[in-house]
Every structure is written in structure tokens, then in C-alpha cells.
Amino acid sequence: MIEPRTVTEALAGAAETTRGVIAIEHDGRSVPLPYRQLLADALTLAGALHARGLVPGDRVAIVLPEVSDFIQAFFGISAAGLVPVPLCPPAQAADLPTFARQSQHILMAARTAAVVTSVDVAPLLNVTGMLEPPSVVTIDQLRHGPALETPVRVSLASTALLQFTSGSTAGPKGVVLSHASLDANVNAITGPDGLAITPADVGVSWLPLYHDMGLIGMLLTAVYMAADVVVLSPVLFLKRPSAWLEAISHYGGTVSFAPNFAYDLCRRRVKPSQIDTLNLSSWRVAGCGAEPIRADSLAAFAAHFARAGFRESSFVPSYGLAEHALAVALSVDGLKVDVVDAERLVRESIAMPAVNGSPAVRIVGCGRAFPGHALTIVDDRLTGLPDRHVGSIVVRGPSMMDGYFEHPAATTEALSAGWLHTGDIGYLADGELYVCGRTKDLIIRQGRKYHPPDLESAIADVRGIPLAGVVVFGINHIEEADEVVAVVEARASAKPDAVIDHVRRRVRETAGLELDRVVVAPPGTIPRTTSGKVRRAETRVRFQAGTLLQSGRGI
Prior knowledge:
With 555 residues, the chain is of the alpha/beta class. Among the domains are: 7-16 and 33-232, ANL, N-terminal domain (Rossmann fold), CATH 3.40.50; 443-554, 2-Layer Sandwich (GMP Synthetase, Chain A, domain 3), CATH 3.30.300. The protein has a five-stranded mixed β-sheet with strand order 11-12-13-14-17. Strands 18, 19, 21, 22 and 23 form a five-stranded antiparallel β-sheet that branches. The radius of gyration is 23 Å and the shape is globular.
């Protein structure tokens, strides 16, 4: 068994091999970064950071659009004994004002000492008005060194990463992850009870490096295992989804993770003529996580790309969260779908198998807790629930965060009696986790419980509505009846009245729920996180304040 290692110790071990990273930028340009060279680059950047007065433990933000620059900066900050704070670059934010606001919020919350950025992005950073503004330095300035001879030694208990949550359900908070928790999670993911990763594997990822699934799940797992990894720009993927599959085909990728929407996007956007040029037979781990997993989406992807050699058995549904470093459970036995009685699930919060003819809900299994970790389902009194009873998901083990940075109240709320309260709800069946949604988003109508992701999924295929262009939420009134509202982004060619009718009918037929209001709005109306997830809570707040719609029509 390999002794636990810090991030830089893992890079130093990988540097003894001939493997490394291939960064593919937004314009398709490939930049090879062998681990040996990456370590040398990290020492150069680390020395330059020290020369600017930074000391071990200082927090340094990374705002870099280029994949290769981000990777070099991350390991340079780590080699200096500093704490990386990844931020979304402006090209991947909704707009420049949003970027300026979000980045300033994080810089202030993290009390960053410096920001490593590019010449183009530096002028867009808003550090004015901050009590202690960070120094802004470009990565090109740091490339001149002077280089450190050896990395700064830090303990496993020291902070390795300050990962800000995406803010899909609340304001972003800084998750404090130690080197020990990163090491524990990476080893759980890659170990024999996880994905059984070896140095012969080849990772391929387009996931943003400023989020945990891209940074930890794809980049750091490859470094810790000294395996090759190809990292594409998210901008390239969103512009041309086939680039992801082309990279898997070209480099013989064996491991690649993505959210559910990416599989849907590829199925819709990759043409049959393009499929004929692909060879996906090497893809043994097709991970799916970070958002609700839809069995129909994965099955459709598998059927669409079967002739390119893709196997449905490669799917690995997963569940995780930033507060647990990354992963909590992986379904390494393939795609398992639990078909449960919709009526009992809604009325009794019990997930019993559906019988013929009864309304059913299909829920994807996300696997079991890792060895040395624990996962259970509890009720409102924190009492453990039996199999197939829906409740709150709580976890514990060596992968847990140390807490939220300088946010003791939120830390106490999330970490209680040794357990991490995830804010998600689900159930266990034969030890396997099935995730139903988030506790705070729950909609209750006439005693029945509805989870917005399920309703949104039912609407997502309505003609005229783009992928991920739907938000459903409940509004609680004191003196009037509660409301359930759907906000849908419709293409310009869509007829609002027809969209409203289709949305209402789809929800009525699939969930037995009558929507109180359907709001048809132009694309870009729904606020999103930097990772592209809809901000359901913010949408509700803006809607209630009357500031959501710039134009559009709602009934």
C-alpha cells in the first residue's frame, strides 16, 4: 500500500515516469506537459511566488482560461506550500459583470493574498474596494522564477485546496480540503474497490478544472496514479461536443467522467457521419455524476454510439459533493435502474418496486460507500432509516472536509456528530445508494412530495426548449395557496402558447401535478453557476422580486 502523499509528493512520484498531461486548448491546440517537466515548471512558479513575499499557507487564486496555464499554476502554488483557490475564468461565466461579482466575492471570502491570472483577464478582475486587495500577477511574470530547488514540505493535515461550492443552492462557501482528505478520496476512487485505475489507463476530460470533478476526479487521480491524461478546454467541448469523443478515440481513452447533460448533448449534436469516424471501444469507465442521472439519457447515448464500439456496461453512475473531496460512491457494477412505485414514493417516501400497470419512477443506483467510509439515510430526527425509506443522506470518513473557510455556523450545520449532512435525499436498497434530490428544493402539494429535477427532466424534451433550459420551484405563501412555477427558456422560433400547453401536459401526464404558472422566457434568462447548473433558488428569488424577465411571456 502506498503511503499517503501530498499533492506535490504525488507529482514528484509521477515525474519519475515518462507519462504526463496533454492539454487541448479552446482553439484545438495541443500542449504536452510531461510530469517531469510539469514538476520543473511548478518549482519555477513556486520560487517566483516566494520572491513576491508569499509564505506557506497563504491562499492564491487561479483565474486562467488556458488549460495548460491553469495546470502549471495549480502545481506551482502547491509546490510553494500555498493554498490554491480555483476560480471560473470570464469566458465560462455568464457575462463579464457576473464574472466580476463572483470573483470578487470569492477573493474576499477566501482572503486571498494573490491572484495568478493572464494578461487578458487581469484588467477584468475587480479588487477595488477590498480591505486587503490581493496582488494580481500574470503567469508569464512568474515563469522567470527564480526556481525553488525542492518543493516546500507540508503536512498531510495542512490545507491542500480551498474549493468554493458552485452556489447552485446557496451562496458559494469555501470548502477546506486537506492533503489527507484528497489522498483518501483519490485512493478510494482509483483503488480495487473503486475504478481499479492503473498507470496503463488514459484519462480524457473536458470538465472545468475550477470544479472538483475535473480537478480532483480527472487531473489529480491521473497524477496520483502516474497515468496519462488528456484535458480539453470546456469551451472547446461546449462549442463542439464531438471533440470530447474524438479525443477518447484518438488517444485511446479508458476513463472519462461527465454530467448527464453532456451525454445528452453528444447524442443530439454528434452526427451519424461523425460516429463512423470514432472508435470508443477503449472507454471502459464512462462516469456520470454532478447532477441528476437519467437512465433514459444514458441508454440513448449507448444506443447512439454502439456502432463506434461504446458499451453500455461502461457506465459508472456516481454520487459525490465538494464537502467530501469529491466522490462518495461509485456504481462499479454498471448501470442499475430501480423502477419504483411513483405513488408510494410520493405519498409515503418509500421506494417499493413498481408492479405492472402502476405509475413508475426510474432511479439510477450510485453504488456503495467506499471502504473506510460510511453512508446512511436518516429522518428529521437523525434516526437511521431501513432500506427503501427515503430520507437525508449523511456520510463520514477520511475524505470529509475540515469545514467551511471562516464560516463556523455553516460548518457546525454541515458536520454534526462526526457525520457530513449532504443536503441531498435518497434511499438505500441492498446497500446501494439511490439519490432522489435535494432536501431544500422539495415541493409538497396536497401531501405529495415532488423533486424539481424529476419535473425538469419531464419537461426537458418538449420541442422548442433547449437542453437544461428548465427550472421548477415552489413558492410558499402565508395567506394564499402555494404555487408551483416552471420557468422555461424557449428558442425564438417557438410559439409561447404551444410551449406552455406542452409543458403543462407533460408534467400532468408524468407526475400528476398541475403547474400553477409556466413562464416562457428567452435563452439566458435562468441564472446558472459557473459549471452550468441552474440556480434554482436564485431563479425563485428573482421571479418573486419581479426581476427575472427582461422579456418573455408567462401564463
